[in-house]
């Protein structure tokens, strides 16, 4: 069934302490830990595609042994339980050791095609990194992680995946609004899957503690396992690797911006070394276009992690990773802008270049343009400002724009993308003027209408995991009905297709959801 080859634990030093007690872990990249069994696990949903990646079929997924493994009640042959040790900058401040507090790795599997995947249970009990928390996860946040991982993948956004969603049959107590009213909520466990769950924070912690030999080992290991194409001397590989991390992160940011995704907690411990979207918590999808929108209630006042700032924050996070790598560069060269240090700086510059190029390519496609010209920046910026002022739905607007008859350039064609009639009327003249400019630009671009529509429909999803849709699925699941989870999973597998009978899943946010918790803002309590 699953073929394990656990390189992380084999090649990197582990914690000699066996007790599962909160502690600082030094001189090790991981600690052994056994998941804590749950009372009555049930498989609520699974992703067939992820199962197939792991060479698992429906029968395997339905087996009691698999349910045991996915709930943390037993280990399959070859599995090893461990939690990894990392730190991170949270909201701009160094936070010291964090680590997998409620994530337990089960090992690395290698499929028949030789692809390697780490399996990780989220919510399977405390680890040495749990501090005072319980190591569990609530059903609502587990549904959000499960569905969004898969939705992002099908939108073409690099992401960790979700194999399964298991209800634990146990309650978890959470104070959702941090207002002194804890309640018992159903618990769940997601099995996440990625080639690597290594984060920027893994390197930062070792650097902060001066554990430079181990830092070098982790870098060597990461390059060998996760970036095997990189070659050269140690120093050359380090530079090339950091370059690659910068480029992948840049591409990820352009993806988030193009689909309207806001991560919500871009701390350095939530940044994947592979440039994957990782750690789905209080994330959200932009409904009415607002660059300053953040779904995370903890971030409401500073808006550090709001929609439009994500690329800038990713860059800041890359600078923190660069700081962590500095101790590995030859000492004499540090004070000057010597070659290797300059190489790290050049990689960060490269981040800016790649991000801009990817952003322009993505938005050229969203606008139906064959290529991006310098003037298009202004056209897009003016559109963004209009969308912000008029509270236009981002996903709906771009999808409907493909239908525009450029001979008419009629604002009525975009009627459905507005949340408020008063704003629609107020901004109709501005939208009309913008559509005229846009139509002229399209005529100049000279693409046949059908071809333009086809590219636009590949670039502008009809279906995204709108915040209220996830919330509806959660509320039904909390009543014991998982039907909506399955429906959403199915719809989100084909986000760019018109799906007859499923138009309701592309409806813009209803009024009742505008200020409802879970639909507009979310807390970190998960
Ligand atoms: P996050 O904000 O989810 O990225 O988590 C930050 C840190 O807190 C990580 O070290 C997590 O593993 C840990 N953490 C969050 N929630 C829990 C929990 N319920 N139990 C144990 N550790 C947790
Ligand atoms: Mg995290």
TrEMBL record:
Mg(2+) binds at residues 270, 279. Keywords: ATP-binding, Magnesium, Manganese, Metal-binding, Nucleotide-binding, Nucleotidyltransferase, Transferase. The keyword Nucleotidyltransferase applies. Pfam families: SelO. The keyword Transferase applies. Transmembrane segments: none annotated. ATP binds at residues 99, 101-102, 122, 134-135, 192, 199, 279. It catalyses: L-seryl-[protein] + UTP = O-(5'-uridylyl)-L-seryl-[protein] + diphosphate; L-tyrosyl-[protein] + UTP = O-(5'-uridylyl)-L-tyrosyl-[protein] + diphosphate; L-seryl-[protein] + ATP = 3-O-(5'-adenylyl)-L-seryl-[protein] + diphosphate; L-histidyl-[protein] + UTP = N(tele)-(5'-uridylyl)-L-histidyl-[protein] + diphosphate. Its cofactor is Mg(2+); Mn(2+). Its EC number is 2.7.7.-, 2.7.7.108. Coiled coil: none annotated. The active site is at 269 (proton acceptor). Nucleotidyltransferase involved in the post-translational modification of proteins. It can catalyze the addition of adenosine monophosphate (AMP) or uridine monophosphate (UMP) to a protein, resulting in modifications known as AMPylation and UMPylation. Belongs to the SELO family. This is Protein nucleotidyltransferase YdiU. The gene is ydiU.
